Amino acid sequence: KRQGSFLAEQDITWKVNTFEVARLKTLVGGIEGGQIQDPDIQFGLWELAPHGIYHGHKHDAPEIYYILSGRAQWKVGDSVQEVSRGSTIYTKPGEVHKMTNLSDQAVQAIWVWWAPNGDREVFSGEYQFTEPTPKQPADLVPWQKSQLEKLYPES
User: Fold this and answer.
1) What is the pLDDT of residues 41-79, one digit of tens each?
2) Residue pair 11/44 in contact by the 8 Å Cβ criterion
3) Phi then psi for 52, rounded to 5 degrees?
4) Which residues are within 8 A (CB) of 77 and not within 5 positions of it... i.e. 6 or more apart?
5) In contact, 134 and 55? CB cutoff 8 Å
6) Are strands 107-114 and 63-69 parallel, antiparallel or unpaired?
7) Are the C-beta atoms of residues 40 and 112 closer than 8 Å to each other?
8) DSSP letters of the chain?
9) Are 31 and 44 in contact (CB under 8 A)?
10) Which of 9, 78, 81, 97 has the most crowded Cβ, counting Cβ within 10 A?
11) Cα 148 to Cα 23: distance, rounded to the nearest angstrom
12) Whether this model's pTM surpasses 0.85
């Protein structure tokens, strides 16, 4: 339970994305509630389901991922690289990026968004998918929405 400057990760609920292949916990910043508030940074945990594909997208906020476990193919702009534990990935504002889990285990990562030069508008900018939703592999086991809060609740 949150006590001042301290937060227990298990007290924050996973949010699942619309496509059921990724989920996240925002620990600092963000609008989900319950986490440590800071207007200039968003930080949390992220997971990509085994064999899941998080298709190409872009957003105004710069982003860093630090891989805790798993193995994935990561595309940032025109560069493609296999990443695993200990890898750090930086995405510039507006740069298209895509992730594909290459293993039978979830890819687990820490993610960070921040407001460059204090420009907090990047957090409310458009989150845009740049390619059609991909057909997921037949062996994909999606995150169960019934057990998680939706990241973007339907209105």
Assistant:
1) 999 999 999 999 999 999 999 999 999 999 999 999 999
2) no
3) -75, 150
4) 95, 96, 97
5) yes
6) antiparallel
7) no
8) --BTTB--GGGSPPEE-TTSSEEEEEEESSSSSSSB--TTEEEEEEEE-TT-EEEEEE-SS-EEEEEEE-EEEEEETTEEEEEETT-EEEE-TT--EEEEE-SSS-EEEEEEEE-GGG-GGGGGS--EE-SPPPPPPTT-----GGGSEESS---
9) no
10) 97
11) 9
12) yes
Q: At which residue do the structure tokens 């997971």 appear?
A: 47
Question: Mean pLDDT throughout 110-123?
Answer: 95
Q: With 90 as the cut, is the pLDDT of residue 120 above it? A: yes
Which comes out higher in pLDDT, residue 21 or 138?
21
How high is the pLDDT of residue 154?
42
Residue recorded with tokens 């994935």: 72
